[in-house]
Amino acid sequence: MPSKRTALGIVAASIAAALAPAAFGEEYPARPITMIVPFAAGGPTDMVARIVGEHMSKTLGRQIVIENVLGGGGTAATTRAMRAPADGYTIELGHMGTHAAAVALYPHLAYDPVADFAPIGLSAAMPILLLARKDFPARDLGEFIAYAKANPGRLNMAHAGVGSVSFTTCLLLNSMLNLNPIPVPYNGTGPAMNALIGGQVDYMCDQIPNVVAGIVDGTIKAYAVATPARSPVLPDVPTTREAGLPGFEVSAWNALFAPKGTPKPILDRLTLALDQALSDPATRKRLLELGCDIPPPARRGQQALAALVRSEIERWKPVTGAGCQNSYSSCTRNVRSNDLPAAANSKPAL
Ligand code: MLT
Question: N or C, fewer C-beta in 10 Å, the chain?
Answer without folding.
Answer: N
